[in-house]
Amino acid sequence: MSGKYVFISRLLLFLITSICITYSGLSLAGWSGMYGERLLQLYGFASQGYAYTDRNNILGESSDGGSFDYREIGVNAFFKYTNRLQMATQFLSRRAGEADDGNLKVDYALVDYRFTDYAKSGLGLRMGRIKNSFGLYNETRDVAFTRESILLPQSIYFERTRDVSLSSDGFELYGHKMTSRGSLALRFMAAYPRVKDENTEFALFRTDRPGDIQSKPSFLARIGYESPNGEFKLFVSSVYMNMLYKPVTGEAGFDSDGDISFQLHILSLRYEYMQWSFTSEYAQRNFRFSKNFTDIPTPPYVPPFMRNTTGESFYLQLVYHFNHKWHLITRYDVLFQNREDRDGTKYVENYQALGLDRSAHTRFAKDSMLGVQWRVNTSWMLSVELHMVDGTGWLSLQDNPDANQTKQNWRAALMSVVYKF
Amino acid sequence: MLAKRLLCLLTTTVLLFPLSGFGQNIIVNSKNPHTEISKNMLRAIYSMKLRTWQNGLPITVFILSPDSEAHQKFCLKNLGVFPYQMQRKWDVMVFSGTGQAPIVLADESEMRKKISEIPGAIGYVLNGEVTENVRQVRVH
Protein backbone atom coordinates (compact mmCIF):
# COMPACT_ATOMS: atom_id res chain seq x y z
CA MET A 1 0.00 0.00 0.00
CA SER A 2 1.50 3.36 -0.94
CA GLY A 3 2.46 5.54 1.99
CA LYS A 4 0.52 8.47 0.61
CA TYR A 5 -2.72 6.51 0.43
CA VAL A 6 -2.31 5.21 3.97
CA PHE A 7 -1.85 8.78 5.18
CA ILE A 8 -4.96 10.07 3.40
CA SER A 9 -7.17 7.25 4.60
CA ARG A 10 -5.95 7.62 8.16
CA LEU A 11 -6.53 11.39 8.00
CA LEU A 12 -10.06 10.83 6.75
CA LEU A 13 -10.72 8.30 9.50
CA PHE A 14 -9.41 10.74 12.08
CA LEU A 15 -11.50 13.64 10.75
CA ILE A 16 -14.72 11.71 10.60
CA THR A 17 -14.35 10.12 13.99
CA SER A 18 -13.40 13.48 15.56
CA ILE A 19 -16.42 15.20 14.07
CA CYS A 20 -18.73 12.50 15.28
CA ILE A 21 -17.19 12.42 18.74
CA THR A 22 -17.33 16.22 19.03
CA TYR A 23 -20.97 16.42 18.03
CA SER A 24 -21.96 13.50 20.17
CA GLY A 25 -21.18 15.71 23.14
CA LEU A 26 -24.31 17.69 22.32
CA SER A 27 -27.69 16.47 23.49
CA LEU A 28 -29.45 14.30 21.00
CA ALA A 29 -32.65 16.27 20.96
CA GLY A 30 -30.91 19.61 20.64
CA TRP A 31 -29.10 19.20 17.37
CA SER A 32 -31.50 20.20 14.60
CA GLY A 33 -31.02 21.34 11.06
CA MET A 34 -32.43 24.47 9.52
CA TYR A 35 -35.61 22.63 8.53
CA GLY A 36 -35.97 21.29 12.04
CA GLU A 37 -34.90 17.79 11.14
CA ARG A 38 -32.54 15.81 13.35
CA LEU A 39 -28.95 15.85 12.18
CA LEU A 40 -27.20 13.47 14.54
CA GLN A 41 -28.24 9.96 15.44
CA LEU A 42 -26.40 7.67 17.83
CA TYR A 43 -26.99 3.96 18.20
CA GLY A 44 -25.26 1.05 19.81
CA PHE A 45 -25.56 -2.51 20.96
CA ALA A 46 -23.94 -5.04 23.25
CA SER A 47 -24.22 -8.81 23.15
CA GLN A 48 -22.98 -11.65 25.29
CA GLY A 49 -22.95 -15.21 24.07
CA TYR A 50 -22.31 -18.65 25.43
CA ALA A 51 -21.12 -21.57 23.31
CA TYR A 52 -20.94 -25.21 24.33
CA THR A 53 -19.59 -27.97 22.09
CA ASP A 54 -19.23 -31.65 22.85
CA ARG A 55 -15.99 -31.80 20.88
CA ASN A 56 -13.85 -29.26 19.03
CA ASN A 57 -13.77 -25.58 19.97
CA ILE A 58 -15.67 -22.60 18.69
CA LEU A 59 -15.56 -19.08 20.12
CA GLY A 60 -13.10 -20.07 22.82
CA GLU A 61 -12.76 -23.32 24.75
CA SER A 62 -16.34 -24.34 24.21
CA SER A 63 -15.59 -28.05 24.64
CA ASP A 64 -14.23 -27.44 28.14
CA GLY A 65 -17.49 -26.72 29.94
CA GLY A 66 -18.56 -24.02 27.52
CA SER A 67 -17.19 -20.63 26.59
CA PHE A 68 -18.40 -17.17 27.48
CA ASP A 69 -15.65 -15.70 25.31
CA TYR A 70 -18.11 -14.23 22.87
CA ARG A 71 -18.95 -10.54 23.25
CA GLU A 72 -19.72 -7.73 20.85
CA ILE A 73 -20.08 -4.05 21.67
CA GLY A 74 -20.68 -1.40 19.05
CA VAL A 75 -21.40 2.31 19.05
CA ASN A 76 -22.12 4.36 15.97
CA ALA A 77 -22.88 7.92 14.96
CA PHE A 78 -24.62 9.21 11.86
CA PHE A 79 -24.32 12.86 11.00
CA LYS A 80 -26.15 14.69 8.25
CA TYR A 81 -24.11 17.67 7.18
CA THR A 82 -26.32 18.70 4.25
CA ASN A 83 -29.03 16.94 2.35
CA ARG A 84 -26.46 15.47 0.03
CA LEU A 85 -23.56 14.97 2.41
CA GLN A 86 -23.63 12.57 5.34
CA MET A 87 -21.04 10.99 7.57
CA ALA A 88 -21.08 7.87 9.65
CA THR A 89 -18.71 5.99 11.90
CA GLN A 90 -18.89 2.89 14.05
CA PHE A 91 -16.56 1.53 16.70
CA LEU A 92 -16.66 -2.16 17.40
CA SER A 93 -15.11 -4.35 20.03
CA ARG A 94 -15.46 -8.06 19.53
CA ARG A 95 -14.23 -10.98 21.54
CA ALA A 96 -14.59 -14.42 19.95
CA GLY A 97 -12.29 -17.01 21.48
CA GLU A 98 -8.73 -16.71 20.27
CA ALA A 99 -9.80 -15.36 16.91
CA ASP A 100 -10.87 -11.89 18.05
CA ASP A 101 -9.20 -10.06 20.89
CA GLY A 102 -11.82 -7.54 22.03
CA ASN A 103 -9.77 -4.52 21.00
CA LEU A 104 -11.74 -1.49 19.91
CA LYS A 105 -11.58 -1.08 16.17
CA VAL A 106 -12.98 1.38 13.69
CA ASP A 107 -15.55 -0.70 11.86
CA TYR A 108 -16.45 1.98 9.39
CA ALA A 109 -15.86 5.72 9.00
CA LEU A 110 -17.24 7.18 5.85
CA VAL A 111 -18.45 10.22 4.01
CA ASP A 112 -21.47 9.70 1.77
CA TYR A 113 -22.26 12.12 -1.04
CA ARG A 114 -25.50 11.77 -2.97
CA PHE A 115 -25.29 12.97 -6.58
CA THR A 116 -28.93 12.41 -7.47
CA ASP A 117 -31.95 11.71 -5.32
CA TYR A 118 -35.22 11.18 -7.18
CA ALA A 119 -38.30 9.19 -6.27
CA LYS A 120 -37.33 6.59 -8.85
CA SER A 121 -33.53 6.56 -8.72
CA GLY A 122 -30.49 7.65 -6.77
CA LEU A 123 -26.74 7.68 -7.20
CA GLY A 124 -24.03 8.36 -4.67
CA LEU A 125 -20.44 7.85 -3.64
CA ARG A 126 -18.98 6.74 -0.32
CA MET A 127 -15.40 7.33 0.75
CA GLY A 128 -13.40 6.11 3.69
CA ARG A 129 -13.65 2.84 5.54
CA ILE A 130 -16.73 1.12 4.18
CA LYS A 131 -18.43 -2.15 5.08
CA ASN A 132 -18.02 -4.82 2.44
CA SER A 133 -21.47 -5.57 1.13
CA PHE A 134 -21.56 -9.02 -0.36
CA GLY A 135 -24.19 -11.69 0.04
CA LEU A 136 -27.23 -11.07 2.18
CA TYR A 137 -25.57 -10.76 5.55
CA ASN A 138 -22.01 -9.55 5.34
CA GLU A 139 -22.61 -5.86 5.80
CA THR A 140 -23.89 -6.20 9.35
CA ARG A 141 -22.59 -9.66 10.24
CA ASP A 142 -21.29 -8.37 13.60
CA VAL A 143 -24.56 -6.79 14.60
CA ALA A 144 -26.40 -9.47 16.51
CA PHE A 145 -29.99 -8.34 16.03
CA THR A 146 -29.67 -8.08 12.24
CA ARG A 147 -28.97 -11.81 12.16
CA GLU A 148 -31.76 -14.34 12.40
CA SER A 149 -29.42 -16.69 14.25
CA ILE A 150 -26.41 -16.37 16.55
CA LEU A 151 -24.00 -17.82 14.01
CA LEU A 152 -24.33 -16.88 10.39
CA PRO A 153 -23.97 -19.69 7.83
CA GLN A 154 -20.30 -20.41 8.36
CA SER A 155 -19.80 -21.82 4.88
CA ILE A 156 -19.97 -18.30 3.52
CA TYR A 157 -19.59 -16.02 6.54
CA PHE A 158 -16.51 -17.62 8.07
CA GLU A 159 -15.53 -16.50 11.51
CA ARG A 160 -11.96 -17.28 10.50
CA THR A 161 -11.14 -14.61 7.97
CA ARG A 162 -13.13 -11.87 9.54
CA ASP A 163 -11.14 -8.68 9.27
CA VAL A 164 -10.59 -9.13 5.57
CA SER A 165 -14.25 -9.55 4.99
CA LEU A 166 -15.47 -6.77 7.23
CA SER A 167 -14.61 -3.45 5.69
CA SER A 168 -12.19 -1.88 3.26
CA ASP A 169 -10.59 1.52 2.82
CA GLY A 170 -11.47 3.18 -0.45
CA PHE A 171 -14.49 4.19 -2.49
CA GLU A 172 -17.93 2.79 -3.16
CA LEU A 173 -20.29 3.90 -5.90
CA TYR A 174 -23.92 3.03 -5.24
CA GLY A 175 -27.16 3.48 -7.11
CA HIS A 176 -30.71 2.28 -7.22
CA LYS A 177 -33.59 2.43 -9.64
CA MET A 178 -37.23 1.70 -8.95
CA THR A 179 -39.72 0.65 -11.61
CA SER A 180 -43.22 -0.77 -11.46
CA ARG A 181 -41.68 -4.20 -11.98
CA GLY A 182 -39.27 -3.98 -9.08
CA SER A 183 -36.12 -2.20 -8.02
CA LEU A 184 -32.47 -2.66 -8.87
CA ALA A 185 -29.57 -1.71 -6.62
CA LEU A 186 -25.91 -1.68 -7.50
CA ARG A 187 -22.84 -1.25 -5.33
CA PHE A 188 -19.34 -1.15 -6.67
CA MET A 189 -16.33 -0.86 -4.41
CA ALA A 190 -12.68 -0.22 -5.21
CA ALA A 191 -10.66 -0.36 -2.02
CA TYR A 192 -7.88 -1.85 0.10
CA PRO A 193 -9.25 -4.64 2.34
CA ARG A 194 -8.13 -4.79 5.96
CA VAL A 195 -5.57 -7.54 6.26
CA LYS A 196 -3.45 -6.42 9.15
CA ASP A 197 -4.43 -9.11 11.63
CA GLU A 198 -3.01 -12.53 12.20
CA ASN A 199 -6.34 -14.21 11.43
CA THR A 200 -5.63 -13.68 7.77
CA GLU A 201 -2.27 -15.41 7.97
CA PHE A 202 -3.76 -18.29 9.93
CA ALA A 203 -6.55 -18.70 7.46
CA LEU A 204 -4.21 -18.62 4.49
CA PHE A 205 -1.12 -20.39 5.77
CA ARG A 206 -2.38 -22.26 8.84
CA THR A 207 0.17 -20.35 10.89
CA ASP A 208 1.49 -16.89 11.60
CA ARG A 209 4.33 -16.37 9.13
CA PRO A 210 7.27 -14.07 9.92
CA GLY A 211 6.48 -11.65 7.10
CA ASP A 212 3.55 -9.31 6.56
CA ILE A 213 0.45 -9.47 4.48
CA GLN A 214 -0.54 -6.26 2.78
CA SER A 215 -3.61 -5.59 0.74
CA LYS A 216 -3.60 -4.44 -2.86
CA PRO A 217 -6.39 -2.67 -4.73
CA SER A 218 -9.39 -4.96 -4.66
CA PHE A 219 -12.90 -4.85 -6.04
CA LEU A 220 -16.35 -5.81 -4.95
CA ALA A 221 -19.64 -5.53 -6.76
CA ARG A 222 -23.17 -6.46 -5.80
CA ILE A 223 -26.25 -6.21 -7.95
CA GLY A 224 -29.64 -6.76 -6.37
CA TYR A 225 -33.17 -7.10 -7.61
CA GLU A 226 -36.17 -6.70 -5.33
CA SER A 227 -39.75 -7.35 -6.41
CA PRO A 228 -42.23 -4.43 -6.05
CA ASN A 229 -43.71 -5.63 -2.77
CA GLY A 230 -40.37 -6.78 -1.41
CA GLU A 231 -41.33 -10.46 -1.33
CA PHE A 232 -38.55 -11.64 -3.55
CA LYS A 233 -34.89 -10.62 -3.54
CA LEU A 234 -32.08 -11.78 -5.75
CA PHE A 235 -28.45 -10.72 -5.38
CA VAL A 236 -25.28 -11.47 -7.28
CA SER A 237 -22.05 -10.54 -5.50
CA SER A 238 -18.46 -10.76 -6.68
CA VAL A 239 -15.32 -10.06 -4.73
CA TYR A 240 -11.84 -9.80 -6.25
CA MET A 241 -9.35 -9.45 -3.47
CA ASN A 242 -5.61 -9.10 -3.96
CA MET A 243 -2.93 -9.35 -1.32
CA LEU A 244 0.81 -9.26 -1.13
CA TYR A 245 3.00 -11.24 1.18
CA LYS A 246 6.13 -9.34 2.12
CA PRO A 247 8.71 -11.78 3.50
CA VAL A 248 11.29 -10.75 6.08
CA THR A 249 14.87 -10.52 4.86
CA GLY A 250 16.33 -13.91 4.45
CA GLU A 251 13.00 -15.74 4.80
CA ALA A 252 13.67 -19.14 3.29
CA GLY A 253 12.32 -19.65 -0.20
CA PHE A 254 11.15 -16.08 -0.75
CA ASP A 255 13.39 -14.12 -3.08
CA SER A 256 10.53 -11.78 -3.92
CA ASP A 257 7.06 -10.89 -2.65
CA GLY A 258 4.31 -13.47 -2.82
CA ASP A 259 0.99 -12.77 -4.51
CA ILE A 260 -2.29 -14.05 -3.17
CA SER A 261 -5.62 -13.57 -4.85
CA PHE A 262 -9.03 -14.46 -3.59
CA GLN A 263 -12.27 -14.48 -5.57
CA LEU A 264 -15.73 -14.96 -4.18
CA HIS A 265 -18.95 -15.19 -6.15
CA ILE A 266 -22.29 -15.50 -4.42
CA LEU A 267 -25.81 -15.98 -5.70
CA SER A 268 -28.38 -15.04 -3.06
CA LEU A 269 -32.08 -15.55 -2.96
CA ARG A 270 -34.74 -14.64 -0.43
CA TYR A 271 -38.44 -15.24 -0.67
CA GLU A 272 -40.75 -13.93 2.01
CA TYR A 273 -44.39 -14.85 2.14
CA MET A 274 -46.58 -13.93 5.10
CA GLN A 275 -44.80 -15.27 8.18
CA TRP A 276 -42.40 -17.44 6.22
CA SER A 277 -38.98 -16.46 5.01
CA PHE A 278 -36.92 -18.72 2.79
CA THR A 279 -33.28 -17.89 2.10
CA SER A 280 -30.60 -19.60 0.09
CA GLU A 281 -27.09 -18.69 -1.00
CA TYR A 282 -24.60 -20.47 -3.20
CA ALA A 283 -20.97 -19.42 -3.38
CA GLN A 284 -17.69 -20.35 -4.96
CA ARG A 285 -14.40 -19.25 -3.45
CA ASN A 286 -11.10 -19.40 -5.25
CA PHE A 287 -7.65 -18.99 -3.70
CA ARG A 288 -4.58 -18.55 -5.82
CA PHE A 289 -1.02 -18.39 -4.51
CA SER A 290 1.97 -17.33 -6.60
CA LYS A 291 4.71 -19.83 -7.30
CA ASN A 292 7.18 -18.59 -4.71
CA PHE A 293 4.95 -20.04 -1.98
CA THR A 294 5.72 -23.55 -3.14
CA ASP A 295 9.45 -22.96 -3.46
CA ILE A 296 9.83 -22.74 0.30
CA PRO A 297 11.81 -25.81 1.29
CA THR A 298 10.16 -26.63 4.61
CA PRO A 299 6.58 -26.53 5.90
CA PRO A 300 4.55 -24.51 6.49
CA TYR A 301 4.32 -23.77 2.81
CA VAL A 302 1.77 -24.04 0.07
CA PRO A 303 2.20 -27.31 -1.85
CA PRO A 304 1.58 -27.25 -5.62
CA PHE A 305 -1.77 -28.99 -5.26
CA MET A 306 -2.97 -26.23 -2.91
CA ARG A 307 -1.88 -23.32 -5.05
CA ASN A 308 -5.17 -22.90 -6.86
CA THR A 309 -8.28 -24.25 -5.22
CA THR A 310 -11.96 -23.46 -5.55
CA GLY A 311 -14.28 -24.13 -2.65
CA GLU A 312 -18.04 -24.30 -2.68
CA SER A 313 -20.68 -23.22 -0.16
CA PHE A 314 -24.41 -23.59 -0.07
CA TYR A 315 -27.21 -23.27 2.42
CA LEU A 316 -30.97 -23.48 2.67
CA GLN A 317 -32.67 -21.61 5.47
CA LEU A 318 -36.26 -21.34 6.61
CA VAL A 319 -37.58 -18.89 9.18
CA TYR A 320 -41.07 -18.86 10.62
CA HIS A 321 -42.21 -15.71 12.40
CA PHE A 322 -44.82 -16.56 15.00
CA ASN A 323 -45.43 -12.86 15.54
CA HIS A 324 -43.26 -9.77 15.65
CA LYS A 325 -41.42 -11.04 18.74
CA TRP A 326 -40.69 -14.72 18.13
CA HIS A 327 -39.24 -16.66 15.29
CA LEU A 328 -38.03 -20.18 14.64
CA ILE A 329 -35.15 -20.83 12.26
CA THR A 330 -33.73 -23.91 10.66
CA ARG A 331 -30.87 -24.23 8.24
CA TYR A 332 -28.74 -26.76 6.41
CA ASP A 333 -25.35 -25.34 5.51
CA VAL A 334 -22.68 -27.11 3.46
CA LEU A 335 -19.05 -26.19 2.87
CA PHE A 336 -16.49 -27.86 0.62
CA GLN A 337 -12.99 -26.42 0.73
CA ASN A 338 -12.28 -27.86 -2.69
CA ARG A 339 -15.12 -28.66 -5.06
CA GLU A 340 -12.91 -31.18 -6.83
CA ASP A 341 -12.31 -33.07 -3.63
CA ARG A 342 -15.53 -32.85 -1.66
CA ASP A 343 -14.78 -35.65 0.78
CA GLY A 344 -11.18 -34.61 1.38
CA THR A 345 -9.65 -37.94 0.39
CA LYS A 346 -7.40 -36.47 -2.30
CA TYR A 347 -6.21 -33.90 0.22
CA VAL A 348 -5.19 -36.68 2.63
CA GLU A 349 -3.43 -38.65 -0.15
CA ASN A 350 -1.54 -35.62 -1.42
CA TYR A 351 -0.23 -34.75 2.01
CA GLN A 352 0.62 -38.38 2.75
CA ALA A 353 2.87 -38.31 -0.34
CA LEU A 354 4.74 -35.46 1.37
CA GLY A 355 5.03 -37.45 4.58
CA LEU A 356 2.45 -35.32 6.39
CA ASP A 357 -0.70 -36.36 8.22
CA ARG A 358 -3.99 -34.66 7.48
CA SER A 359 -7.66 -35.39 8.24
CA ALA A 360 -10.22 -35.49 5.47
CA HIS A 361 -12.94 -34.02 7.68
CA THR A 362 -11.10 -30.68 7.80
CA ARG A 363 -12.07 -30.18 4.16
CA PHE A 364 -15.84 -30.03 4.53
CA ALA A 365 -18.63 -29.23 6.97
CA LYS A 366 -22.31 -30.02 6.89
CA ASP A 367 -24.21 -28.11 9.54
CA SER A 368 -27.84 -28.69 10.48
CA MET A 369 -29.19 -26.13 12.88
CA LEU A 370 -32.35 -25.20 14.70
CA GLY A 371 -32.84 -21.97 16.62
CA VAL A 372 -35.28 -19.67 18.33
CA GLN A 373 -35.12 -15.91 18.71
CA TRP A 374 -37.20 -13.81 21.09
CA ARG A 375 -37.35 -10.04 20.77
CA VAL A 376 -38.43 -9.25 24.30
CA ASN A 377 -38.96 -5.59 23.41
CA THR A 378 -37.25 -3.03 21.17
CA SER A 379 -34.11 -3.15 23.34
CA TRP A 380 -33.61 -6.78 24.34
CA MET A 381 -33.28 -9.96 22.35
CA LEU A 382 -32.56 -13.56 23.37
CA SER A 383 -31.48 -16.40 21.10
CA VAL A 384 -30.85 -20.10 21.52
CA GLU A 385 -29.68 -22.52 18.85
CA LEU A 386 -28.38 -26.03 18.32
CA HIS A 387 -26.02 -27.26 15.63
CA MET A 388 -25.18 -30.78 14.52
CA VAL A 389 -22.10 -30.72 12.33
CA ASP A 390 -20.39 -33.32 10.20
CA GLY A 391 -16.94 -32.01 9.34
CA THR A 392 -14.59 -29.34 10.68
CA GLY A 393 -14.14 -27.28 7.52
CA TRP A 394 -14.80 -23.92 9.13
CA LEU A 395 -13.31 -24.31 12.60
CA SER A 396 -10.81 -21.62 13.52
CA LEU A 397 -7.20 -22.69 13.86
CA GLN A 398 -6.57 -20.44 16.82
CA ASP A 399 -9.26 -22.17 18.87
CA ASN A 400 -8.17 -25.59 17.54
CA PRO A 401 -4.38 -25.43 17.17
CA ASP A 402 -3.98 -29.04 16.13
CA ALA A 403 -6.36 -29.78 13.29
CA ASN A 404 -5.60 -33.48 13.56
CA GLN A 405 -7.03 -33.50 17.10
CA THR A 406 -10.42 -32.31 15.92
CA LYS A 407 -13.28 -34.77 15.62
CA GLN A 408 -15.49 -35.16 12.58
CA ASN A 409 -18.93 -35.23 14.15
CA TRP A 410 -19.73 -32.67 16.78
CA ARG A 411 -22.57 -30.65 18.26
CA ALA A 412 -22.88 -27.12 19.52
CA ALA A 413 -25.38 -25.26 21.66
CA LEU A 414 -25.31 -21.48 21.71
CA MET A 415 -27.17 -18.80 23.61
CA SER A 416 -26.98 -15.06 23.42
CA VAL A 417 -28.42 -11.93 24.98
CA VAL A 418 -28.42 -8.70 23.00
CA TYR A 419 -29.12 -5.16 24.14
CA LYS A 420 -29.74 -2.41 21.61
CA PHE A 421 -29.76 1.31 22.34
CA MET B 1 -53.32 -24.50 -6.86
CA LEU B 2 -56.87 -23.44 -6.16
CA ALA B 3 -56.50 -24.50 -2.53
CA LYS B 4 -53.40 -22.32 -2.22
CA ARG B 5 -55.23 -19.35 -3.73
CA LEU B 6 -58.17 -19.79 -1.37
CA LEU B 7 -55.86 -20.11 1.63
CA CYS B 8 -53.99 -16.98 0.57
CA LEU B 9 -57.23 -15.07 0.10
CA LEU B 10 -58.56 -16.24 3.43
CA THR B 11 -55.35 -15.34 5.28
CA THR B 12 -55.11 -11.91 3.70
CA THR B 13 -58.78 -11.18 4.41
CA VAL B 14 -58.43 -12.31 8.01
CA LEU B 15 -55.29 -10.22 8.40
CA LEU B 16 -56.65 -7.12 6.76
CA PHE B 17 -60.22 -7.35 7.97
CA PRO B 18 -59.60 -5.34 11.13
CA LEU B 19 -57.86 -2.73 8.99
CA SER B 20 -60.48 -2.31 6.32
CA GLY B 21 -62.76 0.05 8.19
CA PHE B 22 -59.79 1.74 9.69
CA GLY B 23 -58.71 5.31 9.16
CA GLN B 24 -54.94 4.88 9.10
CA ASN B 25 -53.64 8.09 7.73
CA ILE B 26 -50.37 9.29 6.33
CA ILE B 27 -49.72 12.85 7.42
CA VAL B 28 -47.29 15.52 6.32
CA ASN B 29 -46.65 19.12 7.20
CA SER B 30 -49.13 21.50 5.56
CA LYS B 31 -46.26 23.22 3.73
CA ASN B 32 -45.67 20.00 1.79
CA PRO B 33 -47.07 20.42 -1.77
CA HIS B 34 -48.04 16.73 -2.16
CA THR B 35 -51.70 15.81 -1.70
CA GLU B 36 -51.12 12.26 -2.79
CA ILE B 37 -48.16 9.96 -3.31
CA SER B 38 -47.75 6.54 -4.87
CA LYS B 39 -47.29 3.43 -2.77
CA ASN B 40 -43.85 3.04 -4.37
CA MET B 41 -42.88 6.50 -3.25
CA LEU B 42 -44.10 5.80 0.27
CA ARG B 43 -41.99 2.62 0.28
CA ALA B 44 -38.95 4.52 -1.01
CA ILE B 45 -39.41 7.10 1.74
CA TYR B 46 -39.81 4.54 4.52
CA SER B 47 -36.94 2.45 3.15
CA MET B 48 -34.90 5.62 3.59
CA LYS B 49 -33.80 5.48 -0.05
CA LEU B 50 -35.44 8.77 -1.00
CA ARG B 51 -34.05 11.65 1.05
CA THR B 52 -35.62 14.78 -0.46
CA TRP B 53 -39.04 15.94 -1.58
CA GLN B 54 -39.34 17.23 -5.13
CA ASN B 55 -39.08 20.82 -3.94
CA GLY B 56 -35.74 20.12 -2.27
CA LEU B 57 -36.95 19.87 1.34
CA PRO B 58 -35.25 17.03 3.23
CA ILE B 59 -37.61 14.20 4.21
CA THR B 60 -37.80 13.51 7.93
CA VAL B 61 -39.37 10.13 8.58
CA PHE B 62 -41.25 9.39 11.80
CA ILE B 63 -42.71 6.18 13.15
CA LEU B 64 -44.43 5.11 16.35
CA SER B 65 -42.93 2.40 18.51
CA PRO B 66 -42.23 -0.81 16.53
CA ASP B 67 -44.18 -2.74 19.18
CA SER B 68 -47.27 -0.55 18.81
CA GLU B 69 -50.42 -1.62 17.06
CA ALA B 70 -50.42 1.53 14.93
CA HIS B 71 -46.97 0.72 13.56
CA GLN B 72 -47.84 -2.88 12.81
CA LYS B 73 -50.95 -1.79 10.92
CA PHE B 74 -49.05 0.91 9.05
CA CYS B 75 -46.47 -1.59 7.78
CA LEU B 76 -49.06 -4.18 6.77
CA LYS B 77 -51.62 -1.87 5.21
CA ASN B 78 -49.65 1.05 3.82
CA LEU B 79 -46.31 -0.53 3.00
CA GLY B 80 -47.61 -4.04 2.37
CA VAL B 81 -44.79 -5.70 4.32
CA PHE B 82 -44.38 -7.25 7.74
CA PRO B 83 -42.89 -4.95 10.39
CA TYR B 84 -39.89 -7.23 10.94
CA GLN B 85 -38.90 -6.79 7.28
CA MET B 86 -38.79 -3.00 7.64
CA GLN B 87 -36.98 -3.21 10.96
CA ARG B 88 -34.26 -5.40 9.50
CA LYS B 89 -33.81 -2.97 6.60
CA TRP B 90 -33.42 -0.05 9.00
CA ASP B 91 -31.07 -1.95 11.31
CA VAL B 92 -28.81 -2.94 8.41
CA MET B 93 -28.62 0.67 7.23
CA VAL B 94 -27.97 2.15 10.63
CA PHE B 95 -25.28 -0.37 11.52
CA SER B 96 -23.47 -0.22 8.21
CA GLY B 97 -23.39 3.57 8.01
CA THR B 98 -25.43 3.61 4.83
CA GLY B 99 -28.49 5.40 6.11
CA GLN B 100 -30.58 6.67 8.98
CA ALA B 101 -33.52 4.97 10.62
CA PRO B 102 -36.90 6.64 11.08
CA ILE B 103 -37.23 8.54 14.33
CA VAL B 104 -39.40 6.78 16.89
CA LEU B 105 -42.00 8.91 18.66
CA ALA B 106 -43.82 8.12 21.87
CA ASP B 107 -47.43 8.62 20.84
CA GLU B 108 -49.79 10.25 18.39
CA SER B 109 -49.83 13.66 19.99
CA GLU B 110 -46.04 13.83 19.71
CA MET B 111 -46.37 12.65 16.11
CA ARG B 112 -48.76 15.48 15.24
CA LYS B 113 -46.56 17.99 17.06
CA LYS B 114 -43.39 16.99 15.20
CA ILE B 115 -45.11 16.92 11.83
CA SER B 116 -46.52 20.40 12.41
CA GLU B 117 -43.08 21.75 13.34
CA ILE B 118 -40.89 20.22 10.62
CA PRO B 119 -41.67 21.21 7.01
CA GLY B 120 -40.33 18.01 5.41
CA ALA B 121 -41.78 15.57 7.94
CA ILE B 122 -43.93 12.52 7.20
CA GLY B 123 -45.64 10.14 9.61
CA TYR B 124 -48.85 8.28 10.31
CA VAL B 125 -51.72 8.32 12.79
CA LEU B 126 -54.64 6.04 13.56
CA ASN B 127 -57.45 8.52 13.31
CA GLY B 128 -57.62 11.22 10.71
CA GLU B 129 -58.32 14.27 12.83
CA VAL B 130 -57.08 17.38 11.08
CA THR B 131 -54.89 19.58 13.23
CA GLU B 132 -52.96 22.78 12.70
CA ASN B 133 -50.19 22.63 10.10
CA VAL B 134 -50.79 18.94 9.51
CA ARG B 135 -52.34 17.55 6.36
CA GLN B 136 -53.33 14.10 5.19
CA VAL B 137 -51.84 12.58 2.12
CA ARG B 138 -53.58 9.97 0.03
CA VAL B 139 -51.62 6.89 -1.02
CA HIS B 140 -52.53 5.38 -4.36
Radius of gyration of chain A: 22 Å
Specify the overall morphology of chain A: globular
Q: Going across the biggest sheet of chain A, name each strand in turn.
A: 1-2-3-4-5-6-7-8-9-10-11-12-13-14-15-16
Strand count, sense and barrel status of the largest sheet of chain B are:
6 strands, mixed
Strand order of the largest sheet of chain B: 2-6-1-5-3-4
Oligomer: heterodimer
Number of strands of chain A: 16
Structural class of chain A: mainly beta
Distance between the termini of chain B: 30 Å
Chain pair sharing the greatest interface: A-B, 49 and 43 residues
In this structure, how is the largest beta sheet of chain A organized?
16 strands, antiparallel, barrel
- The strand count of chain B comes to 6
Low-confidence stretches of chain A: 24-30
Helix run count of chain B: 5
Provide the low-confidence segments of chain B as ranges.
16-23
Query: How do the helices and strands follow one another from N- to C-terminus of chain B?
Result: HEEHEHHEHEE
- Could you tell me the mean pLDDT of chain B? 83
User: Helix tally of chain A?
Assistant: 4
Short description:
The complex is a heterodimer of chains A (421) and B (140). By secondary structure, chain A is mainly β.
Kindly describe this structure.
The complex is a heterodimer of chains A (421) and B (140). In chain A, strand 10 (258-273) and strand 11 form a beta hairpin. Chain A has helices spanning 3-24, 162-166, 198-205, 345-352; strands at 40-53, 67-80, 85-96, 100-117, 121-131, 167-179, 182-193, 212-226, 232-246, 258-273, 276-289, 308-321, 326-336, 364-375, 380-390, 409-420. With 421 residues, chain A is mostly beta strands. Chain A is 10% helix and 51% strand. The two termini of chain B are 30 Å apart. The chains are: A mainly beta (421), B alpha/beta (140). At the A-B interface, strand 1, strand 2, strand 3, strand 4 and strand 5 of A face helix 2 and helix 4 of B.
